[in-house]
Write a structure and sequence with these properties.
It contains eight helices and five strands. The protein has 183 residues and is mainly alpha-helical. The relative contact order is 0.10.
Length: 183
């Protein structure tokens, strides 16, 4: 038997004895919880481990996937995109475009491209797009959704449940825009 498991069983048994629990069912539950605690004590809580594992997967997959899709160096991509709590944001000083509407469409195209090519998430909620726009100081509550009614985007859903994805022309535009920005 694994020494880590043996140690966890021993410590769990000691804890249950110290607690002085008499009910057999409660003893089983307490013992089970204590074993689980001691087996995973050095790794953090299950929720913490899960979030940490997901963030590591996202970080490990995002940059190589986008780089292989666009043939742009990862270093240059990190000058365009940032990862904050499993959310992709643009970190460029300014978004290209002649008007605010153009800038909002370009921002949405770049963010959707990163999620699609980098993480394999084709559809993205309007809330995540709005958050990326707020981060880039391009969010206008009245006009943002209206500006995304363009042939670059496909949408599904209603009101706050709207999700967006890039169309074929939008994918081509986003890839070209990203290449021009990275140079």
């Amino acid at each position: 038997m694994d020494t880590k498991l043996q140690d966890a069983l021993k410590k769990a048994n000691e804890e249950v004895e110290k607690a002085g629990i008499n009910d057999p069912e409660l003893r089983k539950i307490a013992f089970s919880k204590a074993v689980d605690f001691y087996l995973h004590a050095d790794k953090g809580s299950p929720q913490t481990r899960k979030r940490s594992d997901e963030a590591d997967i996202i970080k490990s997959d995002l940059w190589p996937n986008i780089a292989s899709s666009t043939e742009i160096e990862e270093k240059k991509l990190r000058d365009v995109y940032s990862l904050k709590d499993k959310q992709i944001l643009l970190v460029m000083p300014s978004i290209p475009g002649g008007s605010t509407a153009d800038k909002q469409r370009n921002l949405a195209a770049l963010v959707l491209f990163a999620y699609s090519e980098g993480l394999g998430q084709e559809w993205l909620s309007s809330g995540l797009l709005a958050e990326a726009a707020r981060h880039s100081k391009l969010y206008d509550t009245h006009k943002f959704a209206k500006n995304l009614k363009h042939d670059w985007f496909r949408s599904a859903g209603i009101k706050k449940g709207i999700k967006y994805k890039l169309s074929g022309p939008g994918l081509s535009h986003a890839k070209g825009l990203l290449k021009s920005i990275a140079q």
